## 1
Amino acid sequence: MYSTLKTASIVKLVSLLCCVFTIVMFVFVSVNSFSSFITKSSTIPYQKALALAARAIARAQAPSSLTPSSMTQNFTTYTDLADGISIKYPAGWEKIEYPAVPMSTTGYRVVVNFLAPIVNASDQWREYLMIQVLNQSTVKSLVPQVNTTLAGNPGYKLVYTNNEESFHLKTLEVWTTIGDHTYLLIYKAEATKYSGYLPIIQRMLDSFKVGVSP
């Protein structure tokens, strides 16, 4: 009798532990899936590396007397004949070009990044607009929210917020597919400054062209 009761108790205990384990695993998977959904972006690792670089450069640069509104006065044109694209950007922004690499291994390449100047001594993040070119397999990772127009072609737009270390960031991704390539433009800023730079970014997006020839 005692042996039967002891066995029953052990069975109940094992069943309880299995239930607890199942619940814990379900919660863990659900939380991670939700987090992945909320912060889903272009899923391109190089983007985060450049974002961290933007922060590092911000700490190294001297403050500028410019404000977002004053940056709209003078624009210059950037042209990349290899990819056949052009875009206008504020003359006071830093332009960083990247070597052309085959997309056969990565599925994408970063063409250029435009970084805003430091506005004041407390500025720890440099807002930027980055241009990437993607192949068709990489495009599948993009999650559109609304339709838009880019370079005179139908496109898509995604806006989301996420945290990177101590920074609360807001990101705008706009892309369009022309031929075999998709052109992805990424604007990333501190959430509190996102709206202030948006008119500049919109002007840049409106000026973006594909099919530029010498």
## 2
Amino acid sequence: MKLFTKLALVSAVAVSSNAMAMQAMDDAALSSTTGQDGISIGIGISRVEIDKLHVFDGDGLAGGYNTVTVNSGVVTSTPTTAAAGAITINDVVVGAPMTAKMIPDPNDATKQIEDPSGAKTLDVTRTISATDHNLANLVIDTDGGNGSPFLNVAATVSGLDISLGKIEVNDVTSSSKAGAYVAGTGSAEILSGLSLKTGRMTANIQLGNTPQGAMIKLDGSMIGGLEINDLALKDASAGGGGYITIGGIKLKDTGTSDLALNADVAVTKEGLAVTAMKNAAGTDIYITKVVLGGGTIASGDTPFQGTGAGSASIGDVAISGMKVWNGAAGLAAIPGAANGAVITIAGH
């Protein structure tokens, strides 16, 4: 019996030792063991609303301008001193991707129709995944870079529904010398507003050194392409008052239903440089319901609800297989693969 007792004791010690070794590890210990140190951040926001967004130009139109007036057929041009102004975007809404709610067709049980009440439901085809409905997920790492260290942020962003209200220009009533600019009450409408639908996208951001070749690289595909709807440009001049309206703009890659996000963003000495539209197959653009004028618009109606002369659409416009080159690549007798357009943004 003593032998069996000793064997039992040894077995118990062995089991307890192994049990201790197999205890669950916390995230920090697991990361150190597997070599997956770093920071992961999930941003859970389903809706953001901004009443007004102002972008101020502190010195206005450099050098001033001439104000032209017509009185009894006499045209007068008066030199006018430049003054600070602002671009104002009203009623900005950024929300989770939504789609029409489908319900059984009361006339055919085998079919579904859009809910006539206009109800919406989450569009999981545009979220990060079917189960992950975060606005964005960030994975942050630092790398020694063999002597050229950098910070790497890998971002996955959900598709979004974006709505912009009226876009206008305003005068400015307060100087920055007083602490801050304040938009005045004088305004003129530029755009009646627009809405955008984006698909899921990924981006990689590198700060410090940038072995990927640019500070920000957009990759992957915008599922379903990019949609811009209800765009209306207003002529607010005394001789105008009408609109150029576009019911919708759809962008996608030629031969697919998605839009590749092959773009680079770099901060150069000359400004922010964005290189985009690098798809070798080209881009398809479809523009619907183009209206020039807008017709007679009743109070409270949008430029898309005008009546009478000028309210009819001139038709749709389609552009297929558009390719873009920049620099020497586009000057060759036989250009190579399209390398995209470079857009540089800077102050002046």
## 3
Amino acid sequence: MIASRIFSSVSSPISVRAAAIFCFACAISCSRVGLAGAAGFLSFFFQNIVIPFSLILVKVGLMNYRHIYHAGNFADVMKHLSVVLILDRLRGKETPFFALDAHGGCGFYDLSSEQAQKTGEWQAGIGRFADDTSMPDDFRLYYDLVKRDLPVKAYPGSPTIIARMLRDQDRLVTSELHPEDVQTLRLNLAMHKGVRVQHQDAYECIRAQVPPKEKRGLVLIDPPFEKTDEFETLCRQMEEWKRRFAHGVYVIWYPIKAHLPVGGLKEAARALNLPRTWVCETLLHPREKEGVLNGCGVIVFNAPYMMPERMAALLPYLSEQMKLFDAPHSWLVPDSASA
């Protein structure tokens, strides 16, 4: 099963050879130590061979990491921390949950690449926490999921972080439309149980997967906002999501730049009137400063119990570590609203 998934995800000659080596390792390990022993070996093989090799492919131009300029920056830290706190709450019940990452990307990003080094954004993001031995426990939940990759100058994307939090009974579907990125995503998630990667438009994937059979779960929507009408599209899609899965937890990530219609997005979220709709933003600059990414935000529908409070308690720590200009948060729709 693993071998077939990897072969379906690669097309270049180098990638095919990598898949062949991986399958050979599978066969050898299973024949010598059985399935139980093979699991540990293959986990080691994937972390120490497959992931570094996929990062090498980025450097020689065989894969396209479009998020690479921004991977591990303040926006990733904020977004991924929010997701981890939500999943931590969902894991509090034994019943299975479903997670959908609608814009999966590549799964891993090479922080030593020319692109990442050019902007250096990760150094002002996740890089600020490397030597901190006194981080709050709730932040450490997130940091422990990403720190294993930092020594090899890699940062995991949101589908990898989510996959690492799945239990045996949980599952993840992630979609990516870019043809090269989706192949890389399949390779990087191949070792995770309960994960399916779709080569599909994000909004079509949500429409196909929601409502999930588990009846509880998280949907993460974080578009690249390359389309000029992305905010309008989100506002339209929210109405459909409410009709299809009104009690699901949704996280919408958005950038804050001068002249972007962020206020309209928040008003549309408020008008949806889903209970426990919460918004949190992290700002590096005043929101109307021209020509730069001033900050980012997340809107959370049906925010799990205590998730907003736990996140809000971490904002002073994030502000100090990442030198934030501001970190406002508020309820758009409180507990008492009727969905």
## 4
Amino acid sequence: MKRAIETHHYVTRLNEDFLQCAVFDSDGTNARLLGVEYIISYKIFSALPEEERKLWHSHLYEIKHGLWINPGVPEALQRSELEKLAGTYGKFWCTWQSDRGDKIPLGLPVLMMSPQESSPGLISEEAIRARDKRYDVSSTYLAQTRADIDVGLGAVHPSADHWKKNGKGFVIELKEVDMVKGSM
């Protein structure tokens, strides 16, 4: 991971096992829509084909370590939801890489991964401190209060976070194909 971006998710829960998120680069009035993240439960994740599981990342680390925050929501009020989210998996397609300076969405979508405890998933301490200061939170305190959050199964599913096992991710390649004519 050569770049890390701060994301702001606006979430709709479709049911207990599936959420969809519009992902922005800030919570300001000029926020740019970066892409979409789908979030699924362990139940759905474990039923996916192995090849599909490689595209999904776990959320346990970012929640337990205070990287996932809900600004303005007291920790006690969000605790129940965080406990549910800790055992979920996300697939985030970034269509606008604004951190590169792109003025509009350019190029192909990029599959993003979540922060993790090992490189290349580490987030810089400087970025965390800046975020904490901006929202008047303490990631250290949040990590302490969330230390007992577990996924209920003892560990993250072994098929998640594929990049951690081999240091490789996935890219989309553009290929021109003939259009299929259909009837409407």
